[in-house]
Structure formats: C-alpha cells, structure tokens
C-alpha cells in the first residue's frame, strides 16, 4: 500500500485549522503539529500510487491556509 509523509507549512497561527481539515481527508491516517521548519507532518496511505498523488495534490495541497508541502514517498516500510 503506497504511503507518504507530507510535511506542511501553514499560514502563521493556522496549524489547528489545517489539522482539523486534515482529519476529513480520506487517506490522511495521522497528522501532528511539529516544531521546526514545517508546521505539520501527515502520514497518508492509498490503494494505488495514483490515488496517493491525487490525495496529496488535490486534497492536501489545496486546503485553505496551506502555504507549501514536501512529500516523501515511503520506499521500504519495516515494522
């Protein structure tokens, strides 16, 4: 199952709003506010790579108050 970590920059002070909206995004299984260069880290899973691309491009990146994202596709998952 394709998985990605999406690092998100938000408008200043809008982290809570974006986190709330991320909960509504299908495939965004987990998201956390973090300190550092990025404001939020989200783990996204989908059935196919095309669906994963669609979630990141058309759902997450277009959320109100999201300024930029960096997507890291998982190539190997060890549990």
Can you give a write-up of this model?
There is one protein chain. The chain has helices at 15-22, 49-60, and strands at 3-10, 28-33, 40-45, 66-73. With 79 residues, the protein is of the alpha+beta class. Helices cover 25% and strands 35% of the residues. Strands 2-3-1-4 form a four-stranded antiparallel beta sheet, with helices on one face. It has two helices and four strands; from the N terminus they run βαββαβ.
Question: How many E-type strands?
Answer: 4
Estimate the global geometry from the Cα principal axes. Answer: globular
In this structure, how is the largest beta sheet organized?
A: 4 strands, antiparallel
Order of helices and strands: EHEEHE
Q: What is the straight-line distance between the termini?
A: 14 Å
Mean of residue pLDDT? 96
Helix-residue proportion: 25-40%
Short description:
Strands 2-3-1-4 form a 4-stranded antiparallel sheet, covered by helices on one side.
Describe the protein's topology.
Layout: E1 3-10, H1 15-22, E2 28-33, E3 40-45, H2 49-60, E4 66-73
Antiparallel strand pairs: 1-3, 1-4, 2-3
Summary keywords:
2 helices, four-stranded antiparallel beta sheet, 79 residues, alpha+beta, 25% helix
């Amino acid at each position: 199952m394709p998985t990605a970590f999406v690092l998100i920059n938000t408008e200043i002070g809008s982290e809570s709003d974006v986190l709330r909206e991320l909960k509504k995004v299908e495939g965004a299984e987990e998201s956390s506010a973090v300190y550092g260069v990025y404001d939020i880290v989200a783990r996204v899973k989908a059935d196919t790579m095309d669906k994963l691309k669609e979630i990141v491009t058309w759902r997450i990146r277009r959320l109100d108050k999201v300024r930029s994202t960096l997507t890291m596709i998982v190539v190997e998952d060890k549990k």
